Amino acid sequence: MRYLFNGLLTKKEGVNWKNTPFRHSAVNFSENITLSPFFLNIFRYFFVLKTDLTMIKGFIFDLDGVITDTAEQHYVAWKKLSDENGWSFDRELNDKLRGISRLDSIQVILEHNNITLDEDTIGKLANQKNEKYVESLDDVTPEDFLPGAKELLTHLRTEGFHVALGSASKNASKVLQQLNALGYFDVIGDGNSVTESKPNPAIFLHGAEKLGLQPDECIVFEDAESGVDAAKTGGFHSIGIGPKERVGHADLRFDSMADATLFEIKSYFKDLF
Ligand code: G6P
Ligand code: MG
């Protein structure tokens, strides 16, 4: 015991480690100072082992339905296009479009209506929907964060976490500008960054790479079933925003961003902070 509780000692007053069973693990700093194995192990635990363990260093956020509710504006634009073309389109079908690209979305709507069109026409119709959607973005203001989103982003910034956007939208920068939210992100990953749509994890892998982090060092926030699938396939930790039926397969789920505080997140992923 005497060996263990002797810490930083001078050879003169303390233990001569050469004569103890700990002689191989004691460290001589200088002629007079030796660090005992007991203190050496404490030092190792905090400064060596701890940094070897995987810790959460970054967050990747989906945009629509997580930071702001443009999911609603997407719905309105698709609904207008569908009405103009006599297609059936409702909120249930709209939920299936969460997280997937514009062209993949129109394919889902056409398949639902048993319609086949050539590529050119599909492209033109997708552009028409986009014009309606972009027009509606002019009404988005810094008041339009989903409750809790701005608070969480601010908290992550003050605690020094790395933050990326991982959205399938080609209009993501415009939405962030309207919200005055560009400053919360180190990296903007959007529909122009990768070609594959969620559930492919490409957009999140892109974000992690740009942040200089491994997937298991990041938590992904998603409101889409396909987005949670993408996060899981990519090896990320995941938080689902929305009902169990949609995002219940995420590691952790909140009904809304208002419940997603850093305190709650740290309590759940406690071994990773
Ligand atoms: C987000 C939305 C999808 C949308 C996609 C593409 O992921 O959740 O509903 O289809 O972005 O958006 P864009 O603005 O490029 O048409
Ligand atoms: Mg979304």
Can you offer a commentary on this structure?
With 273 residues, the protein is an alpha/beta fold. The protein has three domains: 38 residues, no CATH class; 143 residues, Rossmann fold (3-Layer(aba) Sandwich), CATH 3.40.50.1000; 67 residues, DNA polymerase, domain 1. It contains twelve helices and nine strands. A hairpin with a 4-residue loop joins β2 and β3. The longest helix is centred in the middle third of the chain and has 19 residues. It starts with a helix and ends in a 5-residue tail after the last helix. The site of magnesium ion has 9 residues, from loops. Keywords: Magnesium, Metal-binding. It comes from Flagellimonas meridianipacifica.
What's the topology here?
Layout (H helix, E strand, L loop, with lengths): L1 H4 L2 E3 L16 E2 L4 E3 L1 H16 L5 E4 L8 H16 L5 H5 L6 H11 L6 H19 L11 H10 L3 E5 L5 H8 L7 E3 L12 H10 L6 E5 L2 H9 L3 E5 L2 H4 L4 E3 L7 H7 L5
Parallel strand pairs: 4-5, 4-7, 5-6, 7-8, 8-9
Antiparallel strand pairs: 1-3, 2-3
Helix pairs in contact: 3-6, 5-6
This protein binds 6-O-phosphono-alpha-D-glucopyranose (G6P) and magnesium ion.
6-O-phosphono-alpha-D-glucopyranose binds next to helix 3 and helix 5.
